[in-house]
Amino acid sequence: MAATLDLAESRARPLRRRLPRATSRRTASNATRRLVRVASVLLCIALWQALVRMRVSLGIVTFSNVPSPSDVMQAFAVQLHSPKLPMHLAASVVRVLSGFCAAAVTGVALGLAIGRHRLLEDTLLPPLEMLRPIPAVAWIPLAILMFPSSELSMVFITFIGALFPILLNTVHGVDAVDHRLVATARSLGTGPIALYTEVIVPGAAPAIFTGLAIGMGTAWFCLVTAEMIAGQYGIGYFTWESYTLQNYADIVVGMALIGAMGMGSSALVKRLGLLLTPWYRLRGEKQ
Amino acid sequence: MTVAPVAQHRSAHVALRALTVEVGPPHRRVAALDRLDLDVPPGQFVCVLGPSGCGKSTLLAAIAGHIATKEGYVDVDSARVEHPHPDRGLVFQQHTLFPWKRVIDNVAFGLKMQGIGAAARRREAQRLLDLVGLSGYASHYPAQLSGGMQQRVEIARVLINRPRVLLMDEPFGALDAQTRRKMQALLLELWASIRTTVIFVTHDIDEALFLGDRVVVLSRQPARIVADFEVPFTRPRTEASTLDPAFVGIKRDCLGWLSEPA
User: Fold this and answer.
1) Looking at the partner chain, which of A191, A205, A283 has a beta carbon nearest the beta carbon of B143?
2) What is the pTM of this model?
């Protein structure tokens, strides 16, 4: 799960690029390091292939039923030409997007309100804090009972999963807005609504985007679980169905696709965040 | 650097009457200001000098309208201060530019809040940037400027509202000695053309004597006025004025007042 994305990581990159010129030794060592990293990944895949080929069984774990990387590649090539895979992917993307968008709107709106008003903090936060430790996945049975449509119950699970990281990061971001910025804005004639649009929202934006990127990761995590239990179509359903139909290679195809989709969508949110908060990368840079 | 005259600046009379302000959490209120009386005539440059943590910032916050008074009141041109208002411009020590706005939009912010269109407010903001010597930095973000440049932007941003009172809370406290001296000179130059009332808080005796028409010395918390005198040096003041024996004499007096036990 790509849940621990932070905007901070990509902040360092443009600074490094600004260095006058890297020494040749450094570029050489960078190339070596990249080579080592690629080799490490290849080695792991080779090890996996070997374990499966030799049907290694260690008593508590066995590789005899695990598909090998070559089987997975073949299965993937077949799936690429199957009309069903796009349907599964589309079903999952639609669910994630609906759940995530609902969570983004709710989480940011609640977070902005809770972060600024003590009364709202005291009334809204305690019930939310009570619900927070319950993993979204634990909501599945109740969600099935609550929503007549299984489609909606899955979207709801996704929503719950994405809501809390977004909400808490927003509250934190609003709290962290320097009170002197607020005082300055008010001294410059800012009214209560403009204070939100001009100061609070942009001030909390980097934290909000961190929350959105994490929320996107948890949304995928929760959706896949929900699909395994309640779904028809969807990439989680595809993975589980492959198990029940004994298409073992497709299980790994499904797993890889889930990972790629989760990572890709989180990276997309993160990129969008950097695009919308161009000043944030500049912190620490001086003339 | 020459400063073009700025038109239509008004300056206010500031009156504090028995001003008492308490700070801290509800269960542990402490008096920061204790029955303070002060009159600042229009156009005067007053420096408020006091030991660290004596309540100087609280005094400015009360005049700005950011904190409620317990007793007494603040009047600006006979109107009671109850809320912040762009007429009373406040400049903090540092890092109060909006990091997400480019320099020009930081300066234009006050006009935006008045509902003035983008083209008109940017034109005016550019004029103020010219005034503080930052013509070429309009499209930079604050993080790309040095501390001294950021303070210039702060001053430009507050002046765009044509404040009747300029409240400055150790605005140059975080700058190195050389930059601070330059900024003091720039501030005096600007003030010579706008002649707004200035209340300038500092713990730096040299700074107070170099800038002020008048110096008010506060005691430790709760702050009371322990000295209030006119600075007898003619303007324009230079580096040489600070070496004058009379200057050194007054400085010694100030040191004495500041080290007095409460």
Assistant:
1) A283
2) 0.81
